[in-house]
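Need tokens for this chain, all 68 residues.
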Amino acid sequence: MLVVYHSRIAYVEYGWIDTAWSSDIDKFVSTTFVFMVMWTGLAKWPIYPWYKKRQNKKKREMKASASE
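Here are the structure tokens for all 68 residues:
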């Protein structure tokens, strides 16, 4: 939903579309997004540790395959 919302705004900036969203849609998206982030705890999810684990796993696999 947010990708479509922001891409349409970008298209207006680039001149590909004539009109952006109405203020009602702006209010709906901002309220819904804030509610979902706060309700799900999305802002607290540890993305970096997950990324770091994946990187370390790749390094271990490369090291193991290089030593064979």
